[in-house]
Amino acid sequence: MHSILILNGPNLNLLGTRQPEVYGSETLADIEARCRDKAADLGIELAFAQSNHEGTLVDLIHESRGTHAGIILNAGAYTHTSVALRDAISSVELPVIELHLSNIHARESFRHVSHIAPVALGQICGFGSAGYLLSMDAMLSHLTQKPPS
Ligand code: DQA
């Protein structure tokens, strides 16, 4: 059975109350519950984590090696600033899908830069919380080399 880590970065613990017009009104716990239901449907194992700390995110990426088959990463603002996260992804050589609730390309110019994108399998953004579920389909499709059903 494949195991996937969904990893969330800074401020995503505030979903539900944080700028709902941008990020929606679901909490991170609501999103986790939907991801867990989908994981059960897909027959995969799911780990779900959030940290506001860059080093903790780096540690969790390192620990994924040998534990998880792939990572879905919403790195929040660290997407736009963190060479350390990019290097961690390159170091573990696991498939990583970069995920954002909002369409970062339609927002402020500083959000158009992603340090994650060049080392990611691909990027999903702009679909709100549905992006988490779409990313799971995309990851499983990549891992099994089968298109999503
Ligand atoms: C985000 C987009 C980032 O630019 C922002 O800093 C976030 C959330 C998103 O999910 O849309 O914290 O990653």
From TrEMBL:
Substrate binds at N74, H80, D87, L101, S102, R111. The keyword Lyase applies. InterPro entries: DHquinase_II, DHquinase_II_CS, DHquinase_II_sf. Pfam families: DHquinase_II (PF01220). CDD domains: DHQase_II (cd00466). The record marks R18 as: Transition state stabilizer. It is an enzyme of class 4 (lyase). GO terms for molecular function: 3-dehydroquinate dehydratase activity. It comes from the Bacteria. GO terms for biological process: amino acid biosynthetic process; aromatic amino acid family biosynthetic process; chorismate biosynthetic process; quinate catabolic process. Keywords: Amino-acid biosynthesis, Aromatic amino acid biosynthesis, Lyase. It catalyses: 3-dehydroquinate = 3-dehydroshikimate + H2O. Its EC number is 4.2.1.10. Transmembrane segments: none annotated. The active site is at Y23, H100. Pathway: Metabolic intermediate biosynthesis; chorismate biosynthesis; chorismate from D-erythrose 4-phosphate and phosphoenolpyruvate: step 3/7. HAMAP family: AroQ (MF_00169). Homododecamer. Belongs to the type-II 3-dehydroquinase family. Catalyzes a trans-dehydration via an enolate intermediate. This is 3-dehydroquinate dehydratase.
